[in-house]
Amino acid sequence: MTQPIDVRRAPARADGVNEHLRTALSLAVSGLPVLPLRVGKVPFGNCRTCARNACGGRPNMKTPGPCTCPAPCHGWAAATTDPRAINSPAWVRAWREAAAVAYHPGGAGLTVVDLDSAEAIAWARASLPATRTVPTTRGEHWLYQGAMQSANAVRPGVDIKSSMQYARWLGPGTGTITALPDVVRALTVKEPATVRPVAVTVPARGGNGQCPHRTPTYLERGLAMAEQRITQARSAVHATVYRTFLAVLSVHGRCGCLTDAHAARLFTAAQAKGESVRHCTDAWTNARTALGM
């Protein structure tokens, strides 16, 4: 979408279909994936076939699919540019009840910076490159070319709507749309977690006080591998942290070579992945309990 869309040019339909459907069809032609919204600016709920994601669902996918339900199900993921779907009987029934038209910005390669207050608008004018703006009930939508992850409350009064999110269509806006700047992308990047010092209990040296490992290099290599395992976790971080703590304690926890400083390194890696101090402590304690320490 490089030029403002003038929905007034959308052709009138002889069957008297409502304005929302006319707008949706016009937007779809321009490349905006659309969907109807109910009163309250919320999508239509899933149909009986798709209730509770019985169909496999698609709300967590980055692009619509694979569900082929003919109804406007699955929130943002129902958004489409297919005029046959938009004009189908199931969708027409929804349009007749709809209170607004929405679109999936990420699906059109767009990002909407939703500014909900005068303070947020003032911040944007001072901090962000000028781009196309659309007046809203409480503020403005700033549109940029380029998709990114969506996030709410990235700062007071500011939401990011792009991938896996929908935005209400409020008109074409004014101004020239510009490329998505790094300053907007940076709004969703979490700052590194502040690592708080924690007191952990390291098992006391057992047996006759002799460490069975030949050199400190063995322990250092094991700790480095454990830190790497936690750092590279892409999912199930909680479980990964626990299993890693368990593995380290099972090998080094009884000989006495593991110190508080070593444990702190593992806690630091876990906290950098977003784990809380409490979860780290619980995982450490649970691992020791599982090993009978």
Q: In words, what does this structure look like?
A:
The chain is of the alpha+beta class. The chain is built from nine helices and ten strands. Helix 6 packs antiparallel against helix 7, helix 6 packs parallel to helix 8 and helix 7 crosses helix 9. Strands 4, 5, 6, 7, 8 and 10 form a six-stranded mixed beta sheet that branches. The N terminus is likely disordered. The protein starts with 18 loop residues before the first helix and ends with a helix. The longest helix is centred in the last third of the chain and has 16 residues.
What integer is the average pLDDT?
Answer: 82
Number of strands: 10
Distance between the termini: 62 Å
What string gives the helices and strands in order?
HEEHHEEHEEEEEEHHHHH
Specify the number of helices: 9
Fraction in beta strands: 5-15%
SS class: alpha+beta
Radius of gyration: 27 Å
**Fraction of residues in helix:** 25-40%
Q: Which residues form runs of ≥5 with pLDDT under 50? A: 1-16, 59-65, 205-209
Major sheet size, sense and barrel closure? 6 strands, mixed
Shape: elongated
Give a short overview.
The chain contains nine helices and ten strands. With 293 residues, it is an alpha+beta fold.
